[in-house]
Amino acid sequence: MTDTALIVGVGDIHGRFHRVQTWLDALERALDRPVDAVLAVGDVEAFAEADDHRRKAAKRSMPAEFTAFARGESRMARPFYFIGGNNEDFEGLHALPDGGEVAPGVHYLGRVGTATLAGVRIGWLSGIYAPKWLDAPLQAPTTAATRKQAGYFRRLEVERLRTERHIDLLLTHEWPRGLFARTPGKPVRPWMGNPLARELVDELQPQWLLCGHSHERFAATLHHEGGVQTRVACLDEAAEPDGAVLWMEWSHGQAVRVGWGIDGHVSWTPAQPWGAVRGTTVRRVP
């Protein structure tokens, strides 16, 4: 389908940049076409310095792979965009609240915003929900405490995104509240996700939402008032591709084919249902 744009969502990378490159190579071979844009849903951990990776990364025992990209020794083969999670190089990202290039071909989208990428209107909110910090000013991440709070979104950022309309694809790091994921061998966890992300989804009503953070693959469809639907794909961390990669072919502002993993198998077309069905439950956070 040469008239479509191929957009690939990737779950929490946690520094596994070479692995993701290999997966994307395989996906392009399976679909016999190039990837137009890669969207990572946070916890990318793009530490430019190996020492920072060893001291601050969530998975410090892993090689400091991003250093090679920051130095130009390695390069992303496709346009790569990411939002912030709660584990990032916050010192490096603090100077780029509205986004910017952090290495050749690697673009931080910023803390909140919208853009049109590969013909698709995308909105995003970086970070996770922490009620204590929701109305606190964002401080420079110079200590362990301020680095942690840099991974929390603020109310003003949420309100900025509320004003947007006509978003096709929304990116958040944390799940919206109310998906009630069930994984074999694990209990139902109704507390997963946050209410503000859910309010945004119910108000903006994007066609699709991609999120990460909880390291689980899960699919659901949220039904809004008026019959509008948002299809949600929760991406696993980038340990194995089957749950960490979601590819989407878009044509004229609509997703026309979607698949999990890198084998090119089509999991969804517009004629098919997507995941568990959930209703609308909006509760305004004071």
Characterization of this structure:
- The protein is of the alpha/beta class and 286 residues long.
- It has one domain (5-278): Purple Acid Phosphatase, chain A, domain 2, CATH 3.60.21.10.
- The protein is built from 8 helices and 14 strands.
- The strands form 2 sheets. Strands 4-5-3-2-1-12-13 form a 7-stranded mixed beta sheet. A 7-stranded mixed beta sheet has the order 6-7-8-9-11-10-14.
- The model is unreliable at 281-286 (pLDDT under 50).
Strand order of the largest sheet: 4-5-3-2-1-12-13
Tally of structural domains: 1
What does the overall shape look like? globular
Share of β-strand residues? 15-25%
Which fold does the CATH topology refer to? Purple Acid Phosphatase, chain A, domain 2
Query: Rg from C-alpha positions?
Result: 18 Å
CATH class: Alpha Beta
Distance between the termini: 47 Å
Q: Would you count the extended β strands for me? A: 14
Work out the helix count: 8
Query: What composes the largest sheet?
Result: 7 strands, mixed
Secondary-structure element series: EHEHHEHEEEEHHEHEEEHEEE
Query: Can you tell me the CATH architecture?
Result: 4-Layer Sandwich
CATH homology-level superfamily: Metallo-dependent phosphatases
Percentage of residues assigned to helices? 10-25%
Structural class by secondary-structure content = alpha/beta
